[in-house]
Amino acid sequence: MPITRRRLFGLFAGAGALVGVPSLWISRMKTYDGPASDHFDGMTFFDPDGAPPKSLREVLRWQLGGKRQRAAWPDWAPSPHADTPPERVDGDKVRLSFVGHASWLIQAGGLNILVDPVWSERVSPVAFAGPKRHNDPGIAFEKLPKIDVVLVSHGHYDHLDIATLSRLTKNFAPRVVTPLGNDVTMRSWDSTIKVEAFDWQDRVELGEGVAVHLVPTRHWTARGLFDRNKALWASFVLETPAGKIYVVCDSGYGDGRHFRRVAEKHGKLRLAILPIGAYEPRWFMRDQHMNPEDAVKALADCGAEQALGHHHGTFQLTDEAIDAPAKALVEALAAAKIPQERFVAMLPGQVVEI
């Protein structure tokens, strides 16, 4: 296939959702400025137990290499589910509604919490290219209850969607909680977003009986050519009336130490939300995204009672088939002798109550 200008824009926009190589005209952005720490050298964030992001040369090898095997996804793959959530969930119950990709509505303790909300058609720095939806959000935006809190894990376009955050701000003015530096990104585009930035291991009170911890995860972030790891990334541990929920929006597996440390620090986990998609080719994705076999290991490491699989089936970010993650999860659970009902691959609009 010839490399036309439109296809080249599309390649960079698609890669930008994962590797911070979007449109070439993006100039230097404002970035975080703060004191050095054990994971910030004064200029750049890093994971002492992680791996650096791939180079532009490796991105081009993956995107343009002659041996690439990219599965074809159907143009449209609708979910059979759609949710209309209640206004609130009180008492000792938690209701989780899967919006799609890494987006969730978690209702607990009378609060409505969105995680990595993306209602946009594309996850890209440009409107005309980049990964496009293959199914509708599991909750229509108009059917959302009043949103109190938004958690944003990091700056990649499939997780930090400025258009959706601005829309939420206009409709609900929620409190937005995110790792250090992502607040700079949000405010630079929309100064009305009520964003608060926190570091790894910070605990943030959200409401009576509900709090969130920002915990290290094996990943990285960028939105342009000049801001690699200029903001922090994190996973979340939510304290709820029904127990602790570990929300991992993006992560590689490594040797599993991040997951074991969460178990050591936070004790019993009622539920883990773990990514199972966007993992091929493994030589490129291994350090930043788990495959289903890795996710099953992560479940064993963190010790959660139950797990839900996400980050698959909505945006084609990588090369595996649309149904490959769900099929591979079944196989990985069987190989590990873990009951299938303990770890379920979710579809948009599906609901779980605990």
What attributes characterize this protein structure?
7-stranded mixed beta sheet, 14 strands, 8 helices, alpha/beta, single chain
Q: Give the terminus-to-terminus CA distance.
A: 49 Å
What is the strand content?
15-25%
Largest sheet: 7 strands, mixed
Mean pLDDT, as a whole number?
92
The helical percent reads 10-25%
What does the radius of gyration come to?
19 Å
SS-based structural class?
alpha/beta
The poorly predicted ranges are 1-9, 20-27
Find the count of extended strands (DSSP E, 2+ residues). Answer: 14
Protein model, in words:
The chain is 23% helix and 19% strand. With 354 residues, the protein is α/β, with parallel strands linked by helices. The strands form two sheets. Strands 6-5-4-3-2-1-14 form a seven-stranded mixed beta sheet, covered by helices on one side. Strands 7-8-9-10-11-12-13 form a seven-stranded mixed beta sheet, covered by helices on one side. Strand 4, helix 3 (162-172) and strand 5 (175-179) form a beta-alpha-beta unit. It is globular, with a radius of gyration of 19 Å.
List the helices and strands and how they pair.
Layout: H1 5-19, H2 56-64, E1 94-100, E2 103-108, E3 111-115, E4 149-151, H3 162-172, E5 175-179, H4 182-189, E6 194-198, E7 203-207, E8 210-215, E9 235-240, E10 243-247, H5 257-266, E11 271-275, H6 282-285, H7 292-302, E12 306-310, H8 324-335, E13 343-345, E14 351-353
Helix pairs in contact: 5-7, 7-8
How would you summarize this macromolecular structure in one to three sentences?
By secondary structure, this protein is an alpha/beta fold. Helix content is 23%, strand content 19%.
